[in-house]
Amino acid sequence: MVSITGTAASAASAVSSVATVAAHAAISAKDRAVQVMPADAIGLAREAGGTSLAAAGHIAKGAAGAAGEICHRTGGVVEQAAGHAAGALQGAQELSAHQLQLGKERMEKMADNFADLLEGFLKRKLQSFVKIFVKKIPGLLKTATDDVEMPKCVKRGKDATIDAVWPDIEQEIMWDLALMIDGSGEDEHPKDYHGCIGCRAFFRYHLYPYDRGLWGSLKDPVWLLFTAIALLPIYGISPCVFLLIFLIIDKTDEFQLVSFILQFKGFQYLTQGVLRSLVGYFLFLSCVTSPGSQEHFCAQSGPGSAAPMILVVVGFGLQTVLAWIAFLLLPCSSKRGRGTLKGHLDHVETGSAKLQGGYILYLLGYDLTTFAISVAALLYTLYLRNWMIEDWPVKHAFYTIQMVHGLLSMPFFFFMIPFLRNVLLHSAPTAYDRFGRCRRYQGPERPRDPKGGAGLPARMLEKAEALRVLENLKSLLAGGRVQSLGEEILATRLGKASEAPDRCT
After folding, report:
1. Are 138 and 163 in contact (CB under 8 A)?
2. Angle, to 10 degrees, between the axis of helix 2-36 and the axis of helix 39-144?
């Protein structure tokens, strides 16, 4: 288009030059004729010169008009070409902006992938480092508990106990670490999980609240009433209370079932063992020593004499039957409060952690053995008393059998301690909210430290930090010098962590 415009301009200039030359030639011819010709000839020449000038003017005027027409037409072409050029420029700018946006998105995606890979690498390195340290603890414990004067058999038993117990402790330590640094923190309930309503939800929350500790429960009159009644060592009241609790709890959660067994048997140690032995001692004093005579009143007021024998026997059997029913429901339960990992770490459950309920089967086997011995002792007593179940010596013997069986339930009581319970069960504690929903135990809200607690950030590596590390890596691969890959980032993260509230409480 530019070439067409240039050609038109050149043609107009040439026509104008021809007209100018013709005019100059005509004027020169006229002046020359005036000098050499007579007056008539001069007149004729003037007319001829005038005619030539007029023709030259017409020619020049026509050429100028043609040049104007050509310029007009070429001007439209130029405007059209300029419009197309502006549109092409705008399209190029939009394409460049789109490509820039795509490049930015690809860079952000690359930074996200790099941050995810690097975060997983750092978490795995931290896990492997802690695991190496944890595996050295049993040797340190053996060395710390050694004594030169210790008998060899005792030393072997001590070391064997440490070797037998430590794998379960290590399992819990590594799981807590994995959950701390790689836990997803997702809600363990599906959206359609609505819990229960009415009295069941009321008792669930007041007996096992997910947002209260021991001191908060001590302020709850419902909890105090149930606990006080469950501790009564007479008339089979305690087994009846735990029968009601068994009907209330969520039997689809593994922790609830196993915790029910431990609590039931732990209370059995207190009620049937410790408290019954104290009550029996004072009842024996009251029926033998207090009267101050050779006669006694143990047949009327001795240990176990006042309680209906059938009711006591049913309560005694209920202690074992309920525990085994809860155990048989374990295959239908799930670990609702255990939590899940994001996927950066792998945690393989080994040993008793693979079993639902952990070591509870072994404890129930022990309890079943003591129960069988107690029943055998009762049957032998009945045999000696001609199967007279309401005979007062039979009642006294059965009272003693219950007391011994309760004292033998001591292991269940000690496994109610939170740390030992976690090692035994390999299951995270659960409790209930006000809607009766079984959920992970949260505990009471802890007051924030005004100076800030050392909490863990949500991610170990943010996107901006990953971009900074990528830039440093590019500079390093290009032959540049990089003093650090991000020590200032680490310092910033530690500063933020010190200001953030503790997420692991």
Report:
1. yes
2. 160
Q: Output the 3-class SS for 312-372.
A: HHHHHHHHHHHHHHHHHCHHHCECCCCCCECCCCCCCCCHHHHCCCCCHHHHHHHHHHHHH
Q: Name the nearest CA neighbour of 2 among 80, 85, 74.
A: 74
Owner of token pair 């929903």: 437
101-131: burial string, b at 16+ Cβ within 10 Å, e else = eeeeeeeeeebeebbbebbbeebeeebeeee
| pLDDT recorded at residue 195 | 60
Alpha carbon of 302 to those of 79, 217, 345, 381, 401: distances in Å? 122, 36, 63, 17, 15
Provide block-wise average pLDDT over 10 residues at a time, the chain (505 residues).
Answer: 46 49 51 48 48 57 63 64 73 76 75 73 81 87 86 89 83 78 63 65 91 88 91 84 92 90 91 87 77 68 76 85 91 77 68 72 90 90 84 84 90 85 80 88 73 55 68 72 57 48 43
Contact 195, 437 (CB under 8 A): yes
C-alpha–C-alpha distance, residues 236 and 321, integer Å: 14
Yes or no: say if 181 and 126 are a contact pair by the CB < 8 Å rule.
Answer: yes
**∠ CA 116-120-121, rounded to 5°:** 115
Element holding 40 (H helix, E strand): helix 39-144
Tokens at 146, concatenated: 């050694």
Please give the distance of CA 269 from its chain centroid, rounded to a whole number.
Answer: 38
Query: Amino acid identity, residue 320?
Result: T
pLDDT on residue 407:
92
**What is the phi/psi pair of residue 49, to 5°?**
-65, -40
